[in-house]
């Protein structure tokens, strides 16, 4: 009868070790997910119509200069 209690103690020790390992794995997974999941998606930046018009005008000016240079 004494040997069965020794086996039970050993099994409980192994269970505790596995439990600690699982807790460590769960912590690692949580850390990994929080770092690499990206959290919430970022929204697109909006640009005012005035700024967009400024950029378009500057681009047209660059194209005009490039075309004039080609001739």
Short overview:
The chain has 71 residues and is mainly α. It is 80% helix and 0% strand.
Question: What are the main properties of this structure?
Answer:
71 residues; single chain; rod-shaped; mainly alpha
Describe the structure.
This protein has 71 residues and is mainly alpha-helical. The chain has a domain at 1-38. The protein is built from 2 helices and no strands. The chain has helices spanning 2-36, 49-70.
What share of the residues lie within helices? over 70%
Oligomer: single chain
Largest sheet: none
Stretches with pLDDT under 50, minimum 5 residues: none
Give the SSE string: HH
Rg, Cα atoms, Å? 33 Å
Shape: rod-shaped
Which structural class is indicated by helix and strand composition? mainly alpha
Q: Can you count the beta strands?
A: 0
**Count of helical regions:** 2
Strand content: under 5%
**Overall average pLDDT:** 88
Give the terminus-to-terminus CA distance: 104 Å
């Amino acid at each position: 009868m004494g040997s069965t209690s020794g086996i039970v103690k050993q099994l409980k020790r192994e269970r505790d070790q596995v439990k600690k390992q699982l807790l460590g794995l769960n912590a690692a997974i949580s850390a990994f997910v929080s770092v690499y999941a990206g959290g919430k998606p970022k929204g697109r930046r909006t640009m005012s119509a005035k700024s967009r018009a400024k950029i378009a005008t500057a681009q047209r000016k660059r194209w005009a200069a490039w075309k004039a240079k080609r001739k």
